[in-house]
Amino acid sequence: MNENPDTTPKTPHRKGYLRSFVRWLLIGVALLWSVAVLILVAARWIDPPTTAVHMERRLQAWVSGFVLTNPGLKGLHHKPYEERYEFVPLSQISPDFQHAVIAAEDQRFYQHHGFDWNAMEIAAEGNMGGGRIRGGSTLTQQLVKNLFFGTGRSILRKGAEFTLVPVAELVLGKRRILELYLNVVEWGPGVYGAESACRYYYQTSARDIDREQAAQLAAILPLPLKRRPDHMYRYSGLIQDRMRQMGW
Fold first, then answer.
1. Which of 194, 192, 139 is nearest to 168 (CA)?
2. Which of 6, 58, 79, 135 sits at a 20 to 30 Å CA gap from 162?
3. CA–CA distance, 190 with 84 (Å, rounded to integer)
4. CA-based torsion, 156, 144, 198, 217: positive or negative
5. Any bridge partners for residue 68, and if so which?
6. How many helices (H) and strands (E) does the chain have?
């Protein structure tokens, strides 16, 4: 009786490969998250030399050779990318400027702990109702996004942001969060930070900017590459009204 033993080599079990892949993927994610936490801890004392948004804009400028800027300006739709980024202490930024940004972007900044659930609910209802798409992000959320994730939108990015925002609130505190945000946020084509914005648009310092100019600058924050402060009189007036209502 002839026996033909099966000499075909056994293939590795796919489930084993899948488990190994998932395990290493989770380890990688945990390492990246830990690095982000360490960066946030360091940011309590060290001013960030750059951010994800800064690097994203540099890459875009490198690929295209120019940066698209302020469509409202005739003949200046494109120009070579020039970066302006100067970090200054919060004490050198006008209180009017600080208050204008809070009134425009996060009116409950000093009341929430990183997430403004009421603002998020209002934003969601407005978006579902077919109105203008708007967000309910706090300054803390926007800071985390600027530092680590750039301008892209995805569920994974929002999930990672959701885990880092409480860490930022815990290790940085409100004053440092505001200081970091005002210094790293994008105010125009290659213009980052309050000091650079004031000098770029008004040829003055962040310390000396007046109340009306501060409100105009705050008004462009949602779309800094598509708006100019001197075109934002109506919205900047609304921001000044909010400042008065908030006791500023």
1. 139
2. 58
3. 6
4. positive
5. 78
6. 9, 5
Rounded alpha-carbon distances, angstroms, from residue 49 to 70, 132, 164, 186, 212: 26, 35, 20, 14, 30
3-state secondary structure of 43: coil
Return the closest-CA partner of residue 149 out of 138, 159, 161: 161
Residue 166 has pLDDT above 90, yes or no: yes
Judge whether residue 137 has pLDDT over 50.
Answer: yes
Which tokens belong to 151?
């301008």
Taking only the tens place, the pLDDT of each residue in 175-222 is 999 999 999 999 998 999 999 999 999 999 999 999 999 999 999 998
Q: CB under 8 Å to 224, separation ≥6 — which residues?
A: 186, 187, 188, 191
User: Where does the chain show beta strands of DSSP type E?
Assistant: 67-68, 78-79, 84-85, 186-188, 191-192
Please report, as a single letter, which amino acid is at residue 124.
A
What is the Cα–Cα distance from 232 to 8, expressed in whole angstroms?
Answer: 74
What is residue 8's three-state secondary structure?
Answer: coil
Q: Burial, 177: exposed, middle or buried (Cβ in 10 Å; 0-12, 13-18, 19+)?
A: buried
Report the sign of the C-alpha dihedral through residues 26, 56, 135, 184, in that order.
Answer: positive
Is 130 strand, coil or helix?
coil
The CA distances from residue 62 to 57, 65, 145, 186, in Å, are 8, 5, 22, 18
Q: Beta 186-188 vs 84-85: how paired, if at all?
A: unpaired
Closest by CA to 36, choosing from 25, 23, 21, 51, is: 51
